[in-house]
Task: inverse folding
């Protein structure tokens, strides 16, 4: 296990791939950790230096008192890059990680070579919904939301076909610290990045899951329309498309990054 003490706190991370290759950062969704990217790290590390990390409040990274903000999570990424002496990287974030990516695209575009926003939106859910979820986990723990959350992460077909992968994802969720999860729920609750999308200053790819009821293809289309020069891709999956359809997900990301590198 690797840990980095940064100006923003102590973060659990993994760095894989050729030391002289371009870097891609992978940022996890709410309620998961860096293990959610196993299939991507293996595929991407043949050509890229892959940096994945546990978001604040998740996995083995620092858990501080909440609420957090998307800006705080974005600054965490910059602190980790600084500590690892990485000047510039592509950034790929899913759901909450995608919101972090949007913030970076607006406020730290010079540190990014490319931006991949996956299964995400400029605004996710409602304040009432997030408050209810926070209250529930504080009262009854992470197990109390596990079935409902996992049911949104994957299609029924995938749940039936790949129970071991579903169980691994569920374990990530139930292992997430209540305080960290609640604090990140609050960050999403308070975030509306839609007004700032026109200020994203880095080439962007937006990936949507066809069957994603959390951040819908319509949400993805809004990002493509409002982020200058953005392109889109749709994958036959629900909310965690990188786990449900890794081959198609990886192909979309690698095609985009390879095209960027060729310019």
Result:
């Amino acid at each position: 296990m690797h840990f980095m003490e940064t100006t923003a706190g102590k973060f659990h991370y993994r760095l894989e791939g050729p030391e002289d290759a371009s870097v891609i950062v992978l940022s996890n969704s709410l309620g998961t950790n860096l293990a959610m990217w196993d299939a991507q790290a293996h595929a991407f590390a043949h050509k890229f230096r892959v940096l994945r990390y546990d978001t604040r409040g998740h996995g083995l990274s620092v858990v501080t008192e909440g609420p957090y903000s998307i800006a705080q999570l974005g600054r965490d990424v910059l602190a980790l890059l600084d500590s690892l002496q990485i000047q510039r990287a592509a950034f790929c974030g899913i759901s909450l990680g995608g919101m972090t990516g949007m913030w970076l695209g607006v406020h730290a575009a010079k540190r990014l070579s490319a931006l991949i926003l996956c299964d995400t939106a400029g605004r996710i859910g409602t304040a009432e919904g997030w408050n209810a979820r926070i209250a529930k986990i504080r009262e009854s723990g992470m197990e109390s939301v596990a079935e409902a959350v996992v049911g949104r992460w994957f299609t029924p077909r995938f749940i039936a076909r790949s129970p071991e992968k579903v169980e691994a994802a569920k374990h990530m969720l139930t292992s997430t610290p209540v305080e960290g999860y609640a604090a990140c729920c609050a960050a999403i609750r308070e975030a509306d990045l839609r007004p700032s999308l026109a200020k994203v200053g880095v080439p962007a790819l937006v990936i949507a899951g066809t069957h994603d009821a959390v951040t819908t293809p319509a949400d993805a289309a809004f990002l493509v329309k409002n982020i200058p020069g953005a392109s889109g891709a749709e994958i036959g999956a629900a909310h965690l498309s990188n786990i449900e359809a890794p081959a198609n997900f990886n192909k979309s990301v690698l095609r985009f990054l390879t095209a960027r590198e060729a310019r």
Q: What stands out?
A: Residues 142 and 178 are 7 Å apart (CA to CA).
